[in-house]
Design goal:
The chain is of the alpha/beta class and 357 residues long. The protein has 13 helices and 12 strands. The chain has 2 domains: 208 residues, Rossmann fold, CATH 3.40.50.11720; 143 residues, Rossmann fold. The longest helix has 25 residues. The protein starts with a strand and ends with a helix.
């Protein structure tokens, strides 16, 4: 079955690209033919960042990063030949497929999009009406739909044969709005248990503690120091283009999804406030400490808390006492067992959804 996927995969962000990679590989393993819709979403215009931060973002978005992300997509992802820039363009020339699938990532968060409005393209409002429509682990982020958005959701999702989201709060909210079953499924990156094709030794790497930060805080810096002191290792600091603060230890510029995965795989331990930072640390059986995000980013903590609760590692990964937590050995056998159960239920959702199609 040919499956057209619409998600955030044209970002120069490791998590966004890797979730598309993992979902594609999963569908291929099930015998399907996935294709990513090359959809260049229109992002929100005013992002509330300071002038200095915007300048830093432009300055650090080097051509090397763009080149390597493009190379990764060309090698590992199959994309539509046509590049789309709007819902109208997709509706005029819809992809030819046996099923349409949207998700994962915050594709249903209008606060990330131009005009602060839902984008019909991310609700698969294009193409023949008889093509099955499925959402997999879609997310609203921290957005709370009001009456107007609820009406749109009922309209947009009425034709979906199967719906799943990635956060418990989103499932509860959407179930009430739609009056139908909404499944809770695993982030696509955790559907795979083998990332061998992306792994390679890091040149001249010695043992290190990786600090991967999306947001600066005194807490995450102290956690990194505590973990590094425990292991007696240097800190390697990596982050997005807005990491403008003075780094701890050695600063690492990350230019590709593969490099990002390898940094986690090669670390002795990881300190992060990134969901995917924790997800890959657990996949690679690395001790990891998560420092919750604050302010406008705090809503992103929900899926992290849910994942850690589900895998039974909340007190180890989101500890009140970092020093005590890092001395404990995570029960990796238990983590693997719980993850396998969650993975299987998510795969069953996909199988049933595609069988209906």
């Amino acid at each position: 079955m040919k499956i057209s996927i619409n998600t955030f995969h044209l970002e120069e962000h490791a998590g966004a690209v890797l979730q598309a990679y993992a979902l594609s590989r999963t569908l291929q393993g099930m015998g399907h033919d996935p294709e990513l819709l090359a959809y260049a979403r229109s992002v929100r215009g005013g992002d509330g960042r300071t002038l200095k931060q915007r300048i830093m973002r432009i300055a650090t978005r080097k051509s090397e990063t763009s080149r390597q992300y493009a190379a990764f997509r060309a090698r590992f992802l199959r994309e539509s030949e046509r590049l789309y820039h709007s819902h109208e363009e997709v509706a005029a020339h819809p992809p030819q497929a046996d099923a349409y699938l949207c998700g994962s990532d915050q594709i249903w968060n209008p606060e990330l999009l131009a005009g602060n409005r839902f984008d019909p393209a991310y609700f698969l409002q294009y193409g023949p009406p008889d093509v099955p429509r499925i959402s997999y682990a879609a997310s609203f982020g921290g957005f709370m739909p009001g009456p107007g958005e609820e009406a749109l959701l009922r309209t947009y999702l009425s034709s979906f044969s199967a719906i799943s989201v990635r956060e418990p709060a989103a499932r509860e909210r959407l179930s009430k709005i739609l009056g139908r079953e909404v499944a809770l499924t695993l982030d696509p990156t955790l559907l795979l248990d083998d990332y061998t094709e992306l792994l390679q030794p890091i040149p001249e790497a010695g043992p290190y503690v990786l600090l991967y930060a999306l947001q600066n805080s005194p807490e995450i810096r102290q956690s990194a120091k505590d973990v590094a002191d425990h292991f007696g290792l240097p800190i390697w600091s990596a982050g997005g283009p807005l990491v403008t603060w003075r780094v701890l230890g050695r600063r690492i510029e990350v230019h590709s999804p593969s490099q990002w995965v390898n940094l986690i795989h090669g670390a002795a331990a990881v300190v992060t406030n990134s969901f995917h930072g924790v997800a890959f640390s657990l996949l690679f059986k690395k001790p990891v400490v998560f420092t919750p995000l604050t302010g406008t980013m705090a809503s992103r903590n929900d899926r992290m808390i849910h994942l850690c609760d589900t895998l039974g590692v909340a007190r180890d990964v989101i500890p009140s006492d970092v020093a005590a937590a890092i001395r404990r050995e995570i029960n990796w056998e238990s983590v693997a067992r719980r993850l396998a159960e969650y993975r299987e239920s998510s795969l069953q959702f996909l199988r049933r959804a595609l069988e209906v199609g």
